[in-house]
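Protocol step 6 of 9: fold each sequence in the batch and record its structure tokens directly after the sequence line. For illustration, a two-sequence batch is reproduced in full.

Sequence one:
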Amino acid sequence: LLPDLVDDFARVAASDRKLYAHGRVTHFSYLPAGAPARIFVRRATRGGLLGALLGGLYLGINRPLQELRAATEARSKGVGTPEPVAVCLTAAGFFHRFTLLTREVEEARDLLTLAAAPSPGEKRALIAGLAQEMRKLHEARIYHADLTLKNILLGRDGIYIIDLDKAIIAERREERLDVMNLARLNRSIVK
């Protein structure tokens, strides 16, 4: 894995990459030499107007470290989120680019993709599983700033919440933050 990080994955053949489209960006996973499981490689990019101007450039290094902290805390509280493996920071003048590596969620599909497909019984089971993950996330005092159907995966082993780079870990659980988080998810469902 380290040699792949050092050369920015240039030696990972295209045929060894499994591609994932996520919004405007394509990420990939691959099996590093000697690794027990596939690794998901996500290069951070911005959305909106800043994304059009800066792409994947960030001032400072807080964002990747916040994601690492939130994911580690979430996993320690039993929340389904991919296991962090590494964060790679690259300086670009006053800015930084970052790449987050996690263990791949096997057979993952985002909920936006799944929304139209399941039967009524499967939808009930999916909603029940999502409600349980949301309860665990809120009990862990973690609030996802961009909770959308694209940021929730159904994998072989259950539901996973991804993209915690803007998540906050509150000092205590707050009903107001619970409601804001669920309202954000609801806006994604209504779209």
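Sequence two, same batch, same settings:
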Amino acid sequence: GRALTQPVRRILDTADRVAAGDVTERVGTFDASTADELVRVGAALDHMADALKQRQDALQDELQRSHQAQATQALVFNSMHEGLWAADLQGNLLLYNATAASLFPIVSNMGDPQAWTGNYGLFVPDSERPLALEEQPLYRAMQGESGQADIAATRIRLGRPWAGVKLTYLADLGSVVLFHGTEIIARVTLD
């Protein structure tokens, strides 16, 4: 009984540790008196643990490459003079860079599109007329359009100056707005 019980217990303990995430655990070798079937089961478990360890190592390598790529992407995005703002079709902000954050308040869900003009201070250039919903580049991208638009923008609630903004909006990637050519065109004094 003992010649059978100890190898079985060793196999089960190893299987439990591998299942708990320790893919370095192995059954190892048995002495000559261990039944051939148990030796094969132990070897199969060790082979499975080796395969899991290789997959885990490959995944860790890929995660490291992904983190490096994300860090590089963030560096590029945040060093661009153009602002980049990407949202899904429901208006949830997915990606933005520092330039976009300097122009507009950044919130994860931009809320009701009808409130965007007031929230983001979007106006027709050289006028005090707010952009209508259907004129707003992000809304147009959410409707499946791509193109370019000139707008005037200000963060009214923070008293920021007016800026002339040239936008490229792209529907192919969801809803992406690229702000370029931003320049201060006048200062707004709020009472």
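Proceed to step 7 once all outputs are recorded. Observation for sequence two: The first helix runs from residue 2 to 19.
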